[in-house]
C-alpha cells in the first residue's frame, strides 16, 4: 500500500512469521487468518494455546479466530479508522503509549493526538457499534503488552479508505513502540504466494524493482543504463484505471498474466464490456480461465512445479522453486514467453535460464543484492539482503525507519462509499473460504476441494432470515445497484444481523457482479468489503 510505504518503505511484513508464535499480544484485524493463511493461523493458535499470548480480534464476522481470542471487537463494516483512533485515544488519555519511543523515533505526534481526541470510546461506539468498555479493554491490553504484533489483510485494504486504514494501523503500532522490535510490527498478510515478489520486482505502476520511483531521475537513469533503453518518467495505470481506459477506448490492447479479472474484479458487467472493447487481448495462464475465453490469443504457461525460479513470500523471504515435471504441450515458463515476444519485437532479452534473470535482479535491486541461487540452495533469505555476506533481515526498522523518523498521520474517519438504505437495506462483504483459492482456477479442478465446498452460499443471520422468510438451503436472490446473483442461503450467526457474506470463487455465482468499484483515491483498490444489497427469497 502506498500509505504504508510512506512510513515504512514498502508494504511488506515488518517482522517474520515465526515471531508471531512468540510475541506477547496479537491484534488481528481484517484477516480471516485460519481460512486465508492457514499456516499463519496455526502460529496464532499455538501462540495463544502454548505460549500464553493474548489475542484481540477486530472483525465484523465471527471468524474462527474468535474462539481463541481474549477479546473480540465486532465493528460495523467500514468503520476501522474510527476503531483504531478510539484505541489510540484511550492509550494517550491513560498514558499507555511508549513516550520514549514516540519522542525519539517518530514525528507529528501532536497532530495525531489532536485528531484522536474526539474519538472517545463513547463516540466510537456510536460509529462502530463496539461497546465503549470493550474498546477500553482492548486499548489497555495492547498498550500494556511488551511486544505486540498487528496482523491485517484485505479486510483492511479493500475499502475506499484502505490507505487510511493502513496508516492508522501504522500509527497504533508506533504509538505502542512496537515497530523495529522482535515480536512486534505491522504485518500485512499477502493474498497470494508471490504478491510480495511481484511488488518487489516493480509490478506496480509507479516503481521499478525494489520500490525505486519511476518519477526519480536517478532511478530512471540507472535502469536506462542497465537495460540500454529509454524509459518514460510517467507513472502507469492501476488495474481499475486500465479497465476504465479499455472501456473508454483509450487502451486498445491488453496482456494479462496469471490474473482472472472476469471473476476477481468488481462490477463484472463493466469489466466484461471493457475487455470486449479492446482491439487485442492476450491472456497468459495455466488454465483456460473465464478471462482467457475472451482472449484473441492464449499463451499456455508453466505452473510452479514445471519451472525454476524464486518466490518472495509474505515475510520477505526469497525461496527457490525447482522444476519437478515437464510442462505439458506448448506451455513454457513465463520468463521464456516474455523474452521470446520481446526478441521478436526487436528488444533483445538474451537470458538462457531463470538463474540469469536472478543475477540481473541482484545487480539492479539493492535489497536483493546479496541473494543468489547458491545462497538459496538450502534456505530462503529475507530481504533486505544487500551484500553476499549479509544474513538477511529478520525484522525491519530496528534502529531507524527508511525515511528516518516514523511519521504519524492524523486521519479522520470517512464512511464507506455505499451504505444500506431503504432500497438496499443490508451490508454485503466478500472473501475466501478455506477450501478454495481466489478465482478457483486451480482449486475448482480439485475433487476434494469441490466436495468440501461445491458452491457459493449466502451467509445470513437467522434474525434476518426470519424477517425475510428464508430457510436454510433455500435459494435467495441478492441484488445491488450493479447486478444480481442467486445462491443457497446458509443461516449462521457468523454474520451480524443486517449483513451477509459471500465467497467469490464461483463463476456460476459471480459475486463481483454486485461489488462496488468505488476506489481508494491513493491505493486505487476497490471497495470489495462493503456494499449495499437487497436479499429476498428467489
SSE arrangement:
Elements: H1 2-8, H2 17-20, E1 25-29, H3 33-36, H4 38-51, E2 54-58, E3 71-73, H5 80-93, H6 99-105, E4 106-107, H7 109-116, H8 121-128, H9 132-144, E5 148-152, H10 154-157, H11 162-175, E6 186-188, H12 195-200, E7 207-208, E8 212-213, H13 217-227, H14 239-248, E9 253-257, H15 261-264, H16 268-277, E10 280-285, E11 297-300, E12 309-312, E13 317-321, H17 334-345, H18 354-364, E14 381-382, E15 406-407, E16 426-431, H19 447-452, E17 457-460, H20 462-468, E18 475-479, E19 484-491, E20 499-503, E21 516-519, E22 526-527, E23 531-537
Parallel strand pairs: 1-2, 1-5, 2-3, 4-15, 5-6, 9-10, 10-11, 16-20, 17-19
Antiparallel strand pairs: 7-8, 12-13, 13-14, 16-23, 17-20, 18-19, 18-23, 21-22
Helix pairs in contact: 1-11, 5-8, 5-9, 5-11, 8-9, 14-16
Features:
538 residues; alpha/beta; Dimethylsulfoxide Reductase, domain 2; Rossmann fold; 4 domains; 6-stranded mixed β-barrel; 5-stranded parallel beta sheet; disordered N terminus
DSSP helical segment count: 20
Number of strand elements = 23
CATH class of the largest domain: Alpha Beta
The main pleated sheet reads as: 6 strands, mixed, barrel
Shape: globular
Would you give an account of this structure?
This protein has 538 residues and is α/β, with parallel strands linked by helices. The protein contains 20 helices and 23 strands. The strands form 7 sheets. It has a 6-stranded mixed beta barrel. The chain has a 5-stranded parallel β-sheet with strand order 3-2-1-5-6, sandwiched between helices. The protein has a 3-stranded parallel β-sheet with strand order 9-10-11, with no helix packed on it. Strand 18 and strand 19 form a beta hairpin. Helix 5 crosses helix 9. It is globular.
